[in-house]
TrEMBL record:
The lineage of its organism: Bacteria, Pseudomonadati, Pseudomonadota, Alphaproteobacteria, Hyphomicrobiales. It comes from the Bacteria. It holds the Pfam family AP_endonuc_2. Its EC number is 5.3.1.-, 5.3.1.14. InterPro entries: L-rhamnose_isomerase (IPR050337), L_rhamnose_iso (IPR013451), Xyl_isomerase-like_sf (IPR036237), Xyl_isomerase-like_TIM-brl (IPR013022). The keyword DNA-binding does not apply. This is L-rhamnose isomerase/sugar isomerase. Transmembrane segments: none annotated. It comes from Aliirhizobium cellulosilyticum. Keywords: Isomerase, Manganese, Metal-binding.
């Protein structure tokens, strides 16, 4: 029996008053899909088996480098964060795992595991942090970490990553995500080649410490905090890293870490083709690394990314099991509501991609019928699959409308009374 943060009665009552409408919407959509030769039950089953990990840092209010405006009842530490993550999973039944960030979430692994078990939560990829200095550390990362010119600083950063693997191993995680802020702010500040050689050598040391059944994800990011050059700036450098390190090394694609208008779905296709797609950090952006909610700016792009994933799934690409994780910063919304919404948007893109008529698409591509090929994608994208998402949640014990049920539950008000308000507006997480 797991601890429920949102009582089953609240969810039950909410569902009861929405069940009839959902039943008729689901039947109507089922009929529509059936005319297109699609079995709605098969899609609902696939959607209900699709999960995405919530980031522990995502349940706190984020901020920018200018300011942070704290919200009500913010989590005080990792155990509060896990409770908030549990709320998201109880209502959506789409987020049964949490991705931790060390040292932010550092505590006795036995306690982490026990808390996770009590809430029915598991742990996805571990995230190391060598982009800021932890209190009391011997060497500063001001001028870099894994690629630093100083060997002792590099060794300290390697050691931190190995510690993340050890903590992760104790709590059932199977992957380490490495993102570094290393780079340079001025032309001439760093030697591109030597800096990348030092990075590769440090990563090789981390790779050696990886258990056999683990994967190592490197995450590229075009700019920030380094504004002139970044060591792992794009998928090209990222692919070189994964290929150099070995079979357990993969590329992680954070949707926000690209220049505006970059064809991310094509990057995804290339990485799948060469067996190096490790997983995702889902979010959305308008201008840069905005860390906005998944699907909030360009839901069609999210769909096109999933179109590639479903294509690979259908082709039975060997060893294809990308990690799905959210990486967002919530500045003006209740983080729990944003994460509920994002988990739904990610499942929506998956469901829409599942109903693409792939046989027809293949034919149109073969015949060079560009208009009908693109219309085939649009037809799937235009389909309102909400009844499938809601039904998948309902059947798994979640809420038909999870944000409405969350608001009804009064959870935020309850924790605001228990957790003292955070004072001051420090710089936020990035
Ligand atoms: Mn990320």
């Amino acid at each position: 029996m797991t601890d429920q943060m949102i009582s089953a009665d609240v969810i039950g009552e909410h569902n009861k008053s929405n069940e009839a409408a959902l039943g008729s919407d689901y039947a109507a959509l089922g009929e529509n899909l059936s005319r297109r030769g699609i079995d709605i039950e098969a899609i609902t089953k696939k959607v209900s088996e699709f999960f995405v990990a919530v980031p522990s840092w995502g349940v706190g209010t984020g901020g920018t480098r200018f300011a942070r405006f704290p919200g009500q009842g913010e989590p005080r530490g990792i155990f509060d964060k896990l409770e908030d993550c549990s709320v998201i999973n109880e209502l959506t039944r789409a987020t049964p795992t949490v991705s931790l960030h060390i040292p932010w979430d550092k505590t006795d692994p036995k306690d982490l595991k026990a808390k996770g078990n009590s809430l029915g939560l598991g742990f996805d990829a571990m995230n190391s942090n060598t982009f800021s200095d932890a209190p009391g550390q011997a060497h500063s990362y001001k001028y870099g970490s894994l690629s630093h010119t100083d060997a002792a600083t590099r060794a300290q950063a390697v050691e931190h990553n190995i510690e993340c693997i050890e903590i992760g191993n104790a709590i059932g995680s199977k992957a380490l995500t490495v993102w570094i802020g290393d780079g340079s702010n001025f032309p001439g500040q760093a030697n591109f080649t030597r800096q990348f050689e030092r990075y590769l050598s440090s990563m090789a040391d981390i790779y050696k410490a990886l258990p056999d059944d683990w994967r190592l994800f490197s995450e590229h990011k075009m700019y920030e905090p380094a504004f002139y050059s970044t060591v792992v700036q794009d998928w090209g450098s990222n692919l070189l890293i994964a290929q150099t390190l070995g079979d357990k090394a993969f590329c992680l694609v954070d949707l926000g870490h690209h220049a505006p208008n970059t064809n991310i779905e094509m990057i995804v296709a290339r990485l799948i083709q060469f067996k190096k797609l490790g997983g995702f950090h889902f979010n959305d952006s308008k201008y840069g690394d905005d860390d906005l909610d998944a699907g909030s700016i360009d839901p069609y792009r999210l769909f096109l990314v999933f179109n590639e994933l479903v294509d690979a799934e259908n082709r039975g690409v060997k060893g294809f099991h990308p990690a799905h994780m959210i990486d967002q910063s919530h500045n003006v919304t209740d983080p729990i509501e944003s994460l509920i919404s994002s988990a739904n948007e990610i499942r929506r893109a998956y469901a829409q991609a599942l109903i693409v008529d792939r046989k027809a698409l293949d034919g149109y591509q073969q015949d060079n019928d560009a208009l009908m090929a693109t219309d085939t994608l649009k037809r799937a994208y235009r389909t309102d699959v909400e009844p499938i998402l809601a039904e998948a949640r309902r059947r798994a014990g979640g809420a038909i409308d999870p944000i409405a049920a969350y608001r009804k539950s009064g959870y935020r008000k309850k924790v605001a009374g228990e957790r003292p308000a955070v004072v001051g507006g420090s710089g936020g997480i990035v």
